Amino acid sequence: MTPSPLRRPLEHSQPPLPRIPGSVFEGLFVRGLKVSGRLAQELEALGYDIRKPEVDYPIQLWQRAVALVRQEVFGELTDEEAHRQVGRTLVDGFAETLLGRVAAVALPMIGPARAAERIPRYLAMMGRPDLEVTMTPVGERGRRLVIPDRFNRPELFAGGFERMLEMANAQPRITVEERFSDSYRLLIRW
């Protein structure tokens, strides 16, 4: 009997950083904001050329591009209001992309409860399959979500979810209940 080879303990490496699909960049910058001129040049300097889109982009580029838009387009708003508007604009623009149309066309038919239940699937479609969203019902017309995300402000998702639920024929109210260094909790009501 031959001795078994020495086993090494598994090394715990960090998972790769998320990459954001080009369709999400297209949704926000090309279709939602319709950037041009100086802002398009500034985005290009960061690494996103609206005329030559790539399949996907590093999350760090997404963060820098959102920060630029927050300042240049929504500079008169508070951080919370500005990021909420970025999220709303992203969903409006993404709904005009080829991939986004598929999701957007169903929203009025499925209604807010089923739309809310699909949030994890929609986040995966927008390039974040790494997010293991925890969702708990809060009555018939509410959901509490814990989103393990350290890359985006919670208001960005809150604004996006608001717009998505409006497309599902609801009048949502979304509150950022708690913030942690690597996650946050949102309360969604409609």
Observed structural traits:
H-NOX domain, alpha+beta, 190 residues, two-stranded antiparallel ribbon, 4-stranded antiparallel β-sheet
Describe this structure in words.
There is one protein chain. This protein has 190 residues and is of the alpha+beta class. Helix 2 (37-46) packs antiparallel against helix 3 (59-72) and helix 3 crosses helix 4. The protein is globular and about 45 Å long. The termini are far apart. It has a four-stranded antiparallel β-sheet with strand order 3-4-6-5, with helices on one face. Strands 1-2 form a two-stranded antiparallel sheet. The model has no long low-confidence stretch (mean pLDDT 93). The chain has seven helices and six strands. Strand 3 and strand 4 (142-147) form a beta hairpin. The protein has one domain: Alpha-Beta Complex (H-NOX domain), CATH 3.90.1520.10.
Secondary-structure map with pairings?
Blueprint: E1 19-21, H1 22-32, H2 37-46, E2 56-58, H3 59-72, H4 79-94, H5 98-117, H6 119-125, E3 134-137, E4 142-147, H7 154-167, E5 173-179, E6 184-189
DSSP helix fraction: 40-55%
CATH architecture descriptor: Alpha-Beta Complex
* CA(first)-CA(last) distance: 67 Å
Q: Can you tell me the overall shape?
A: globular
CATH topology (fold) name: H-NOX domain
Percent of residues in beta strands: 15-25%
Structural class: alpha+beta
Mean pLDDT over all positions: 93
Low-confidence stretches: none
Rg over CA atoms: 19 Å
Number of distinct helices: 7
> What sequence of helices (H) and strands (E) makes up the elements?
EHHEHHHHEEHEE
The level-1 CATH class: Alpha Beta
The count of domains is 1
User: What does the largest sheet look like?
Assistant: 4 strands, antiparallel
**The named CATH superfamily:** H-NOX domain
- Compute the number of strand runs: 6
Instruction: Give the spatial strand order of the biggest sheet.
Output: 3-4-6-5
